[in-house]
């Protein structure tokens, strides 16, 4: 065989191998893309960090397939799948939350995420209103920002109480094998109400993103301004995890018990 023919044969083999590899990668990624984002995070909580990096909503938007979520976030699915495969975070306490009995999961949500909201909510209101007092006259855009921060907190505080006083006790009773049908009827009714309120909180956060250029302080921002945006970004990250645990783990398992 001539050198030219040998070279062509090598190139053809390489092309074929490349095509096979591309096909294998596509086949491997398709199960990921067809799955719901919330399910992927429920299987492995570390995936939440990947989705956050790409701006993919895994809590309120957890019911969408990964393919749809990538399209909504305007990111390449292949990059997201690669990041999910490469995720190597270890020791994350939440990895095991999907395996907890429901009463223990509720205890975790209350002691971790509900407590976090109660601790940070007053600070966010304080920081945002201080910004308005100090800079609102010259930077009018922060006036509606403070109003939306207060709206978020005023939505969340009674939401926590409704979960703790009505829904969570009912789920605890279900997990103990008791029949539950209070003033709310089937437990699916308060669950639907809580999910709707989660969506409302998500909509307010989206508005806050728009007002703050994704929580990016301007160059002239004072320390309070910068701390407020940083605290709000942290608050959102915790709220995403909080809502994910309820929407994608606690609530579906509770509905299964009620059947």
From TrEMBL:
InterPro entries per record: Hemerythrin-like (IPR012312), RIC_family (IPR019903)
Name this protein carries in UniProt: Iron-sulfur cluster repair di-iron protein
Pfam families from the UniProt entry: Hemerythrin (PF01814), ScdA_N (PF04405)
Leader peptide range in chain numbering: none
Record domain Hemerythrin-like: where: 112-253
Gene3D superfamilies per the UniProt record, alphabetical: nmb1532 protein domain like
Swiss-Prot/TrEMBL keywords: Cytoplasm, Iron, Metal-binding
Molecular function, one GO term: metal ion binding
Main location group: cytoplasm
NCBIfam families the record matches: FeS_repair_RIC
Lineage: Bacteria, Pseudomonadati, Pseudomonadota, Gammaproteobacteria, Alteromonadales
TM segment ranges: none
Organism: Shewanella putrefaciens (strain 200)
Subcellular location: Cytoplasm
Gene Ontology CC terms: cytoplasm
């Amino acid at each position: 065989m001539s050198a030219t023919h040998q070279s062509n044969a090598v190139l053809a083999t390489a092309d074929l191998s490349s095509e096979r590899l591309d096909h294998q990668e596509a086949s491997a990624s398709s199960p990921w893309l067809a799955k719901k984002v919330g399910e992927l995070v429920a299987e492995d909580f570390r995936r939440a960090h990947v989705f956050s990096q790409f701006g993919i909503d895994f809590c309120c938007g957890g019911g969408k397939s990964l393919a749809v979520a990538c399209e909504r976030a305007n990111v390449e699915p292949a990059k997201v799948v690669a990041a999910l495969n490469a995720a190597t975070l270890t020791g994350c306490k939440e990895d095991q939350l999907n395996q907890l009995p429901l009463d223990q999961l509720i205890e975790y949500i209350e002691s971790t995420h509900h407590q976090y909201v109660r601790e940070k909510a007053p600070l966010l209101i304080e920081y945002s209103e201080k910004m308005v007092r100090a800079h609102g006259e010259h930077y009018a855009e922060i006036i509606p920002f403070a109003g939306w921060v207060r709206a978020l907190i005023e939505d969340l505080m009674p939401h926590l109480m409704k979960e703790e006083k009505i829904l969570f006790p009912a789920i605890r009773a279900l997990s103990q094998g008791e029949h539950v049908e209070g003033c709310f009827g089937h437990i699916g009714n308060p669950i639907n109400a809580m999910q709707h309120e989660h969506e409302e909180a998500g909509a307010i956060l989206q508005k806050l993103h728009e007002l703050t250029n994704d929580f990016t302080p301007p160059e002239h921002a004072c320390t309070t301004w910068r701390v407020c945006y940083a605290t709000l970004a942290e608050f959102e990250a915790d709220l995403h995890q909080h809502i994910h645990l309820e929407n994608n783990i606690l609530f579906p398992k509770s509905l299964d018990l009620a059947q």
